[in-house]
Design goal:
Blueprint lengths: L1 E10 L2 E11 L4 E5 L6 H9 L5 E6 L2 E2 L5 H7 L1 E4 L11 H6 L7 H14 L2 H4 L10 H14 L4 E5 L7 H16 L3 E6 L2 H5 L4 E6 L2 E7 H12 L2
Helix pairs in contact: 6-7
Length: 229
């Protein structure tokens, strides 16, 4: 589904991503573990097209390295950024539907119903401004918005950051739902413990490079050590 080869991202003289290779298959969740500054978010931003990158990014067999972010989204790449970026004055329902604005109205209704089934609180709070929700609820709204466009690949940047365990469990359930639907997920996290429970494969990043790769069982020790650096 996603194939990255020799990816480089630089800001001025700083190498944020330095020669990274990785793959994500359909229905697979791949985890990038690392401290702040490891290069995780820069890699995600390169995949969605928010930063200039050197190297090859292929999605479903097609080279998308030179496509705009909008074009990549149209191909089926969803993105939930770090920091619970909801539209604070818009209702919960309108926030979620913003992710599927290109779909016909009937299909938008179906997507909304699917999201409410997955996250019942969306229906309970659908008319409330998203900015009035708790941090965990806002994060779920942002993820539901990204899922609303029916992506084939979803990029999740630090979905657990600063959340209470109850919301981490909800987001973990959402990722498992995507796995069941065959959606590929590439996620970054500093909180290794909950992330390792839902991922199939992982990479430990430091200094813009992948230092360790393997199944989550194989990298567990290295990932937990990185969590405390």
């Amino acid at each position: 589904m996603l194939s990255i080869r020799d990816l480089h991202v630089a800001y001025g003289g700083t190498r944020a991503v330095d020669g990274v290779d990785l793959d994500v298959a359909s229905g697979q969740t791949v985890l990038l573990i690392g401290a702040n500054g490891a290069g995780k978010s820069s890699l995600i931003n390169a995949v969605i097209g928010l930063v200039r990158a050197r190297g090859q990014i292929r999605f479903d067999g097609r080279d998308i390295s030179n496509l705009s972010s909008e074009a990549r989204a149209r191909l089926g790449i969803g993105y939930s950024p770090e920091g619970r970026r909801v539209f604070p004055t818009m209702s919960v329902r309108d926030n979620v539907l913003a992710g599927c604005v290109r779909l016909p109205a009937r299909e938008q209704g179906k997507r909304w119903d699917n999201m409410v089934e997955a996250f019942p609180f969306l229906g309970e709070r659908q008319s409330q401004p998203a900015g009035q929700l708790s941090g965990g609820q806002q994060q779920l709204v942002a993820i539901a918005r990204a899922m609303g466009g029916a992506p084939r690949l979803l990029l999740l940047d630090e979905p657990f950051l600063g959340l209470a365990p109850v919301w981490i469990q909800q987001i973990s359930a959402a990722v498992r739902k995507m796995q069941d639907e065959g959606i590929a997920v590439l996620m970054t996290e500093q909180m290794a413990r909950p992330a390792l429970k839902i991922a199939h494969y992982g990479h430990v990043m430091r200094g813009g490079q992948i230092r360790r790769s393997g199944s989550t069982a194989e990298i567990k020790g290295a990932a937990l050590a990185e969590e405390y650096l």
